[in-house]
């Protein structure tokens, strides 16, 4: 299929609107740059807001506006990773709403904010130079949202625009390897859309965010898709990268106008060359022996490397007593990383003995625990994941917060995947937090992988729980595989099985041009150490036909498009191989759900019975749900949906409903006839009466007691147990309540009175009633 592209002006005719007038006002110098994407215009401005920050930028698309600020301290904090914190915040005021919690203010962080923060972090972290260990905080504040354009892409574009602060000599821009641009790509009816609106995304089969660097390099990819063909997906990536270059050129032009000077950090932390060379002489052969001993597993390999580390670091300290602890540690790390990477680059061997494209041993089991609605165990090497499926009522679906609803239009969802990573999975001791950023991110990726195959009309809310029991790389993709198996075991009619795999990269930079890759090896199904010491974690999941999700985390300043295309192709081949193994365990969903699974039935309740079914103030419904555990929701005027967690609970609920709604003497009541009623209770608003012994008491309102206005039934001398005459006017057509009146009988008109009491001969089972005629 040949796709149409709504791409705006080609790169050769870049339409960049640069507002570079030197306007000085109370805010200082304000600069603005704009990029046209066809009918859409992306604007980046700086110099007006948040001028005390090291950097600040305001990015706008349509009427959606995000302010990005950055502060980087000059005091270093040496560690094993770049101390970067990214926080994205969406305020209720931006959408014209007030928070619904008891304090009516933003409390905590929502799942959408955490996932967006991770997205931004993954885009900008690779661009910091190695050894830049200065605390850096990037805050993205949603100022306004129009409900049409998503703000997440704007926040990414603002992150490298923060160098336009008032004090440019304090900015972080200059320590970056390069600039950054990001766009969202959608695919609607065969047409690729750049930065599509929310309405367009609702019918798009691709939701792709690409962050690109200069020279058409890829820094980050985050994508969900609906079983999209590989060639279409690759085309979408190319379109996205092409349009990131427009943004990058605009920002670079703005930087030239602003005359941003290069900032030199006080110190880039690295080990001295002579210390690294000494560590290489001491440890390279020992490390090589460990990495080429293919009998090691994760634990034994780590123990062996740590033993060599301790010996080497001790000798380094003896020779360099003045060395900082970080320099000693980094010297060994550099040698260990160098040996590991050379093994792959030069000998095409991996530390577990596999070749570059081989999968680890995979085993699958389904129906692990009989009481569960669905369960599966997926084992890939030393990564083991247990997945379970739970069904519940549609009322159990996730209700999104009001801002996420305003942004995406999704009010609730009836499919969720929760990822858990306990510390024992890596032989550690730690807190059971339950919901940290990493667990949320991995769970969201696995959920994206499975959501496209879930039937949209499934009558239950589905929760997949993925618990990582062992971890040695790619646990999120193992969760997608295990979740697919568990869904089929639960009898969910998914359209196709889903599998995922992680692809890694070992590359060698060009000595003359460090930003270019001279040589590289792409690895299939990476181990945890290959992720840690490698240059890329490229996760892809989908069906035999197409791609459902892709997430690329890059640890170098950028990947050429050619390499990204190769990674997609290599992942697709591995995905199909994994699906073939999974199909040997369970090839299609069960024809029927398990017998102990939940049940949903519709119950028809006539309007005349509705008040009795619901009970006073909903009493009967609450009692039914408390006693049987069912959930009841109204479908239409006469139909209620009953969800029961087990067939036994449904049987109990049916007996309860039958008892409440069983036919009784009421069918003999005649419209317009007068009956003798017994007062059962005196209330402020009226009296509760019964027309016959086994009926539920009904309210006779004060307004229907007498022609005179009364505030309390005692004004008429009414008492409990007293018998009064009332006239029956049938049922209210809207709520089914019985309509009776005593007031209309206060006139002299003669009426037929039908007395129903325990003293009379009434056969309640057969409906026979003996009545006498009297005068009112």
UniProtKB/TrEMBL annotation:
Entry GO terms, CC: cytosol; mitochondrial intermembrane space; mitochondrial matrix
Predominant subcellular localization, coarse grouping: cytoplasm
One term of GO molecular function: RNA binding
Record keywords: Acetylation, Cytoplasm, Exonuclease, Hydrolase, Membrane, Mitochondrion, mRNA processing, Nuclease, Nucleotidyltransferase, Phosphoprotein, RNA-binding, Transferase, Transit peptide, Transport
InterPro entries per UniProt: ExoRNase_PH_dom1 (IPR001247), ExoRNase_PH_dom2 (IPR015847), ExoRNase_PH_dom2_sf (IPR036345), KH_dom (IPR004087), KH_dom_type_1 (IPR004088), KH_dom_type_1_sf (IPR036612), NA-bd_OB-fold (IPR012340), PNPase (IPR012162)
Entry EC number(s): 2.7.7.8
Record CDD domains: KH-I_PNPT1, RNase_PH_PNPase_1, RNase_PH_PNPase_2
Compartments, record wording: Cytoplasm; Mitochondrion intermembrane space; Mitochondrion matrix
GO biological process: mitochondrial mRNA catabolic process; mitochondrial RNA 3'-end processing; mRNA processing
Residue intervals of the S1 motif domain: 672-743
SMART domains reported in the protein's UniProt record: KH (SM00322)
Top-rank lineage group of the source organism: Eukaryota
PROSITE patterns: KH_TYPE_1, S1
Membrane topology value: Peripheral membrane protein
Top EC class of this enzyme: transferase
NCBIfam families noted in UniProt: polynuc_phos, PRK11824.1
Record text on subunit structure and interactions: Homotrimer; in free form. Homooligomer. Component of the mitochondrial degradosome (mtEXO) complex which is a heteropentamer containing 2 copies of SUPV3L1 and 3 copies of PNPT1. As part of the mitochondrial degradosome complex, interacts with GRSF1 in an RNA-dependent manner; the interaction enhances the activity of the complex. Interacts with TCL1A; the interaction has no effect on PNPT1 exonuclease activity.
Family membership noted in the UniProt record: Belongs to the polyribonucleotide nucleotidyltransferase family.
Protein name, as recorded: Polyribonucleotide nucleotidyltransferase 1, mitochondrial
Organism, as annotated: Salmo trutta (Brown trout)
């Amino acid at each position: 299929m040949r796709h149409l592209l709504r791409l705006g002006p080609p790169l050769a005719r870049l339409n960049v609107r640069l507002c570079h007038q030197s306007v000085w006002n109370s805010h200082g110098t304000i600069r603005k740059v704009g990029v046209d994407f066809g009918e859409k215009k992306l604007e980046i401005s700086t110099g007006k807001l948040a001028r005390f920050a090291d950097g600040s930028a305001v990015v706008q698309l349509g009427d959606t506006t995000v302010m990005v600020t950055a502060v980087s301290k000059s005091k270093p904090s040496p560690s094993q990773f770049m101390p970067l914190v990214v926080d994205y915040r969406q305020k209720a005021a931006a959408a014209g709403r007030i928070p619904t919690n008891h304090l009516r203010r933003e409390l905590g962080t929502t799942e959408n904010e955490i996932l967006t923060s991770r997205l931004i972090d993954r885009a900008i972290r690779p661009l910091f130079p190695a050894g830049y260990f200065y605390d850096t905080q990037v805050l993205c504040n949603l100022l306004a949202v129009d409900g049409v354009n998503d703000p997440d892409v704007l926040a990414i574009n603002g992150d490298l625009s923060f160098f336009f602060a008032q004090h440019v000599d304090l900015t972080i821009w200059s320590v970056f390897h390069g600039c950054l641009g990001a766009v969202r790509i959608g695919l609607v009816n065969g047409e690729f859309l750049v930065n599509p609106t929310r309405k367009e995304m609702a019918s798009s089969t691709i939701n792709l965010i690409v962050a690109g660097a200069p020279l058409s390099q890829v820094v980050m990819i985050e994508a969900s898709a609906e079983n999209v063909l590989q060639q279409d997906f690759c085309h979408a990536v190319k379109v996205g990268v092409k349009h990131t270059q427009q943004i990058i050129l605009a920002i670079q032009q703005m930087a030239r106008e602003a005359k941003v000077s290069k900032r030199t950090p006080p110190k880039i932390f690295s080990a001295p060359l002579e210390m690294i060379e000494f560590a290489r002489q001491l440890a390279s052969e020992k490390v090589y022996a460990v990495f080429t001993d293919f009998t090691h597993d994760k634990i034994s390999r780590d123990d062996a490397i740590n033993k060599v580390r301790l010996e080497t670091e001790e000798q380094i300290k003896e020779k360099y007593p003045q060395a900082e602890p970080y320099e000693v540690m980094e010297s060994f790390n550099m040698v260990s990383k160098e040996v590991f990477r050379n093994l792959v680059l030069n000998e095409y061997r991996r530390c577990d003995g596999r070749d570059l494209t081989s999968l680890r041993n995979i085993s699958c089991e389904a129906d692990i625990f009989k009481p569960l609605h669905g369960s599966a165990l997926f084992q890939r090497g030393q990564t083991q994941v247990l997945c379970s499926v739970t069904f519940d009522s549609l009322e159990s679906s996730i209700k999104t917060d009001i801002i996420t609803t305003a942004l995406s239009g999704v009010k609730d969802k009836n499919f969720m995947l929760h990822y858990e990573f306990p510390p024992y999975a890596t032989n550690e001791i730690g807190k059971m937090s339950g919901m940290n950023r990493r667990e949320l991110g991995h769970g969201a990726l696995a959920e994206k992988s499975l959501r496209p195959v879930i039937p949209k009309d499934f009558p239950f809310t589905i929760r997949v729980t993925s618990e990582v029991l062992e971890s040695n790389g790619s646990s999120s993709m193992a969760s997608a595989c295990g979740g697919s198996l568990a869904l089929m075991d639960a009898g969910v009619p998914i359209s196709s099985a889903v599998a995922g795999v992680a692809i890694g990269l070992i590359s060698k930079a060009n000595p003359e041009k460090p930003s270019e890759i001279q040589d590289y090896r792409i690895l299939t199904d990476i181990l945890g150490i290959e992720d840690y010491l490698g240059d890329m974690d490229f996760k892809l999941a989908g069906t035999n036909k197409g791609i459902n999700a892709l997430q690329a985390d890059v640890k170098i300043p950028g990947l050429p498009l050619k390499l990204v295309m190769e990674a997609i192709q290599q992942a697709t081949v591995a995905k199909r191989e994994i699906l073939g193994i999974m199909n040997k365990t369970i090839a299609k969903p069960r024809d029927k759900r398990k017998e102990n699974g939940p049940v949903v039935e519709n119950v028809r309740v006539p309007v005349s019975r509705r008040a009795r079914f619901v009970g006073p103030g909903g009493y009967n419904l609450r009692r039914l749900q408390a006693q049987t555990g069912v959930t009841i929701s109204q479908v239409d005027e006469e139909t209620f949906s009953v969800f029961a967690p087990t067939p036994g609970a449904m049987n109990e609920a049916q007996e309860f409903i039958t008892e409440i709604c069983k036919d009784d003497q009421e069918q003999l009541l005649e419209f317009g006839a007068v009956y003798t009623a017994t007062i059962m209770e005196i209330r402020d608003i009226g009296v509760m009466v019964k027309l016959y012994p086994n009926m539920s008491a009904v309210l006779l309102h004060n307004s229907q007691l007498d022609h005179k206005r009364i505030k309390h039934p005692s004004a008429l001398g009414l008492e409990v147990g007293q018998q009064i005459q009332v006239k029956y006017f049938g049922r209210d057509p809207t709520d089914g309540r019985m309509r009776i009146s005593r007031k209309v009988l206060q006139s002299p008109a003669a009426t037929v009175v039908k007395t129903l009491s325990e003293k009379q001969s009434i056969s309640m089972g057969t409906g026979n009633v003996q009545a006498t005629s009297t005068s009112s």
